Amino acid sequence: MARKLLLTHIDVPGIQTFEVYRQKGGYRAVEKALKTLTPDDVVEEVKKSGLRGRGGAGFPTGMKWSFLAKPEGVPRYLVCNADESEPGTFKDRFLMTHIPHALIEGMIVSSYALGANTSYIYVRGEMMPQIRILERAIAEAKNAGFLGKNILGSGYDLELYVQPGGGAYICGEETALLESLEGKRGNPRIKPPFPAVSGLYNCPTVVNNVESIAATVPIINDGGEEYAKIGIERSTGTKLISAGGNINKPGVYEIELGLPVEEFIYSDEYCGGIAGGKRLKAVVAGGSSVPILPANLILKTLKGDSRLMTYESLADGGFQSGTMLGSGGFIVFDEDQCIVRNTWNFTRFYHHESCGQCSPCREGTGWMEKVLHKIEHGHGAFSDIDLLVDVSKKIEGNTICPLGDAAAWPVASAIRHFRDEFEWHVTHGQEAQTRNYGLAHYADPLEPVA
Ligand SMILES: Cc1cc2nc3c(=O)[nH]c(=O)nc-3n(C[C@H](O)[C@H](O)[C@H](O)COP(=O)(O)O)c2cc1C
C-alpha cells in the first residue's frame, strides 16, 4: 500500500470533527511550529520538502513564499484557492468535505510562516456544504485556542475567514480571485506586479491551493527532508488525484508521485481498469486544460519509457507527445468515446467561462465552439479542422491570463492526436455520431500500443 500523508485517517469515523482529528494527532504541526520554530524555519522546511503548488502550475511553494515582500507596517495575507472549477478536478472538495481540519491546520502553519494575521479561504460559490463545514471547523479550532489572539500563548494572532466565490471558473485564477475577494468582478490583473508584491488590497499576498496548504502539515510534522524522500526528481511527496471517466473505480486517490500511469489506471488499488472491460482510448491527465493524450502516449513516452505520475514524466515530449500533471483531474476515455464531442464540450465550457477581457480568448473560444459544433453535428469541412488549429494558435500566449492557453491546448492536442477522428466526422457527416469509428487509438489492458 502506498504511503498516505493527507488521507491517512480518511476512514476514521468522525474525522471531520475537531475532537477526532485532534485524537489522531491533528494540530501537532501548529504546536510544533508556534512553539519550536520561527516563521523562517517553517519556510525553510517547506523549501526542503520540494513541495510544488498543487493548483496546476506546479510552482515550488517554498520559493513562492520567499518572494513575499515584507514592507514595514503593511499587512500580509495568505489566501487559499479553493475555487476548484476545473472540469475533472474534485480533490480539494473531497479534502474539505472529509478532513476540513487538515486545511485549517495548514492555514495556521502557513499563515504563521508568512507573517499573515488575517487569512482567507476562497471557496467556489456553489460549494455551500463545504463552506458550512469549513465555518464549523474554524469555530471548533477557535474554541480550542488554535485561532484568534495569542494562539497557544505564542503571541501569534490569526483570524481566518471563509469567502464564497463569485461563481465563475475565472475566479480560480489567482489575480481574478483577489479582485473577487475585494468585492469586484473577477477579472484577472496584468502581472507584474505579482501578488507577492501587490496582492489583496495591494498588500503582499500568497495564493496557494488547498492541497498545497494541507501538505504543509505533514511537512512540519515529519520535516521537509522526510517529505522529499517520497517521489522522484523534482516531483516530491504525495498528490491527490481525482479520477473520473470510464473507469471501474472513480474517486479521489492519494498517490506517491512517481507511480506508473499504467498502474494507476489498471491496478485495483486505484482506478481498477477500464469500465466494462473496454479498451483505453485516451486520457486527460491533469484537468480539462491540459493536452489530451492517446492511449499509447499516456502509457509510454515516445522514448519508450513508462509514463509516470510526475510533473516531469507527464511533460516528457513537450506539447508534441506529452501533457501535464496540472490539477490532478484524471479523465479516462474508453474506446467508444468521441474525442470530437468531448473537445466541443470542453470548448463550450471555456467559451462560457472566458471573462471577455482579451479579444483572442473572448472571440476565439466562441469561434472554436461554433466550428466544433459544426464538425460534431456533421456539417464540417476539412478546412474547418485547419481553421481550429489556426484559431487555437492565435489564442495561445496572447491573453492576460492562462485561461486562453487552457482553452487552446485541448483543441490543438485533440487534432494533433486524433485528426483522423475529426476527418471521419467530416467525411461521414451525421452518421459519424455513432461513436464506434474503427480507428486505431486503443490500448489493450497492460499491452500498450507501440
Ligand atoms: C482560469 C484559471 C483557473 C484556475 N483555477 C484554480 C483553482 O480552482 N484552484 C487553484 O488552486 N488554482 C487555480 N488556478 C491556478 C491559480 O492561478 C494559482 O496558480 C494557484 O492557486 C496557486 O496555488 P499553488 O501554487 O498552491 O498551486 C487557476 C488558473 C487559471 C488560469
TrEMBL record:
InterPro entries noted in UniProt: ComplexI_51kDa_subunit (IPR050837), NADH-UbQ_OxRdtase_51kDa_CS (IPR001949), NADH-UbQ_OxRdtase_suF (IPR011537), Nuo51_FMN-bd (IPR011538), Nuo51_FMN-bd_sf (IPR037225), Nuop51_4Fe4S-bd (IPR019575), Nuop51_4Fe4S-bd_sf (IPR037207)
Entry EC no(s): 7.1.1.-
Xref: SMART domains: NADH_4Fe-4S
Source organism, top-level taxon: Bacteria
MF annotations from Gene Ontology: 4 iron, 4 sulfur cluster binding; FMN binding; metal ion binding; NAD binding; NADH dehydrogenase (ubiquinone) activity; NADH dehydrogenase activity; quinone binding
Domain NADH-ubiquinone oxidoreductase 51kDa subunit iron-sulphur binding: start-end pairs: 340-385
Protein's name according to its UniProt entry: NADH-quinone oxidoreductase subunit F
Source organism (scientific name): Parapedobacter composti
Upper lineage: Bacteria, Pseudomonadati, Bacteroidota, Sphingobacteriia, Sphingobacteriales
